[in-house]
Design goal:
Blueprint (H helix, E strand, L loop, with lengths): L7 E7 L3 H10 L9 E8 L3 H11 L8 E3 L3 H5 L5 E4 L3 H13 L3 E5 L6 H14 L3 E4 L6 H12 L6 E9 L22 H17 L15 E9 L2 E10 L5 E7 L11 E5 L2 E9 L2 E9 L2 E7 L8 H12 L10 H18 L9
Parallel strand pairs: 1-2, 1-4, 2-3, 4-5, 5-6, 7-10
Antiparallel strand pairs: 7-11, 8-9, 9-10, 11-12, 12-13, 13-14
C-alpha cells in the first residue's frame, strides 16, 4: 500500500445493541482527520428481523447496504469481512472472540474485554496461536484530547511531579425499573457498575499517573496496590470506590455509581501535580470534551477538541492502521495492558464481594 494511501477495512458488526449503533454511526461520518476508510460490510444479529431493523434505523443511506445475517457465525465465515466489532454484553465476549479467531478474523472487542483476567488470557493465547489481530475497544484512550493530556503531563511536565488523580463516573442507570434479565442486573451476564462504567474512572487514574505505553511497548506497567469497597444490591455492585496506590506514593481515587438520582458533574476528573492541575470536562468519563490546565501564577488555559459523533472512529482508525502494517496488537491498548486492567478489576471485585458464575473457583 502506498504511504499516502489510507487503508480500507471491511467491518462485520456482531450484535445490534446501543453501542453497536454508536459505532456504525461513527464509521460513516465524513471526517477530515480520518486515517482509514471504513466499510460496514455485514451486520450479525440474533435474528434476521433485528438485523434488518438495525440497518433501516442506523444505516438507511449506506450504499451498498451491508449484508444482514441472523446469526453471529455467518459474520465470522463471510470472506468479505476483514475485522469484526464485538458489541455483545461482557459475558459473551470470550466466546465471540474465540469463534471469530477460529475463522481468522481480526477483532475489536468492546470493553470490558472479558469477565475476568483468566478469560482474557485465553482469548489472547488463541489469537497468538492463530496469528490474528485483537484489541480491546477502550475508545477513550484513543481520543486526541487524552493523547494531549498525556504529552502535557508525562513529557512536558506541565503540572510538575504528578501526585494524584481523582475521577468519578456516576449515572442513574434506572436499575429499579429493569428486570433480572437485564445485563445490568444479571450476574451471569456480567452485571457490574465497575465493569460497565467504573473501568473508565480506573482508566483515568492510569492516564494521569502513568507514562503512556507508546507504539512499541508491550510489557505491562507496574500493577498498583488496590484498595476497594463496593455497595451491593442482590450481589451486583451499584457503587464502587477504588484507591490505586503506587510504590512511590502516587495515588488515584476512582469511583463509580449506578444508583438512582446520581450523576457526576461535568468536571469529572482532576489530575494534580506539584506545580498545577488538569481538570477534565465532559458529558461522562468515557467521552471527555475539554480540559483546563491550571498552573500557579499563570492564567488558566482551556483546551477544546472537535469531536463529531461519539469518537469511536479513532480506535477504528488505529485498528485499520495496525492490520495494514501487519501488527497483531495495538501500542496504545496492547494485550498486556488489557490483562493488567482485568486483574485490577478482578481484585476490586474480590474486595467488594462481586462474584460472577464464570469466575474461577
Amino acid at each position: 500500500m502506498p504511504s499516502d494511501e489510507k487503508p480500507t477495512l471491511r467491518w462485520g458488526i456482531v450484535a445490534t445493541g446501543l453501542i453497536s449503533s454508536w459505532f456504525v454511526a461513527d464509521l460513516i461520518i465524513d471526517r477530515e482527520d480520518a486515517q482509514a476508510n471504513h466499510i460496514i460490510q455485514a451486520i450479525g444479529s440474533s435474528s434476521l428481523e433485528k438485523g434488518k431493523a438495525f440497518v433501516a434505523k442506523h444505516l438507511p443511506n449506506v450504499s451498498p447496504a451491508p449484508t444482514v445475517y441472523g446469526s453471529y457465525d455467518e459474520i465470522y465465515t463471510d470472506p468479505n469481512v476483514d475485522a469484526v466489532y464485538i458489541g455483545t454484553p461482557h459475558a459473551f465476549h470470550k466466546k465471540n472472540c474465540l469463534d471469530a479467531i477460529s475463522h481468522g478474523k481480526s477483532i475489536l472487542c468492546e470493553k470490558t474485554f472479558t469477565l475476568n483476567a483468566v478469560e482474557a488470557k485465553e482469548v489472547f493465547e488463541a489469537a497468538k496461536a492463530k496469528g490474528v489481530f485483537v484489541m480491546e475497544a477502550m475508545w477513550t484512550r484513543f481520543f486526541p484530547l487524552v493523547k494531549t493530556i498525556q504529552k502535557l503531563v508525562h513529557e512536558d511536565n506541565a503540572i510538575g511531579h504528578v501526585l494524584r488523580v481523582i475521577c468519578d463516573f456516576a449515572m442513574d442507570q434506572h436499575l429499579d425499573s429493569k428486570g433480572q434479565e437485564s445485563r445490568l442486573k444479571n450476574l451471569s451476564l456480567g452485571a457490574s457498575s465497575l465493569l460497565d462504567i467504573g473501568i473508565y474512572s480506573l482508566t483515568w487514574g492510569i492516564i494521569g499517573l502513568e507514562q503512556p505505553l507508546g507504539d512499541t511497548l508491550k510489557e505491562a506497567q507496574e500493577k498498583p496496590r488496590m484498595l476497594a469497597t463496593s455497595t451491593l444490591s442482590e450481589g451486583v455492585d451499584v457503587a464502587t470506590s477504588m484507591i490505586l496506590h503506587y510504590s512511590d506514593g502516587r495515588q488515584a481515587i476512582a469511583t463509580s455509581h449506578s444508583g438512582v438520582g446520581v450523576r457526576t458533574p461535568s468536571n469529572f476528573c482532576r489530575i494534580e501535580g506539584s506545580e498545577g492541575s488538569i481538570v477534565v470536562d465532559g458529558g461522562a468519563a468515557s467521552v471527555p470534551n475539554s480540559f483546563v490546565l491550571q498552573k500557579r501564577g499563570i492564567e488558566d488555559q482551556k483546551f477544546e477538541f472537535k469531536r463529531p459523533g461519539k469518537g469511536l472512529y479513532w480506535e477504528a482508525d488505529a485498528v485499520a492502521l495496525d492490520i495494514a502494517a501487519g501488527r497483531k496488537e495495538n501500542g496504545t491498548m496492547p494485550w498486556a495492558e488489557t490483562i493488567r486492567v482485568m486483574e485490577l478489576l478482578d481484585e476490586t471485585r474480590r474486595q467488594g464481594g462481586v462474584v460472577f458464575p464464570q469466575d474461577p473457583q
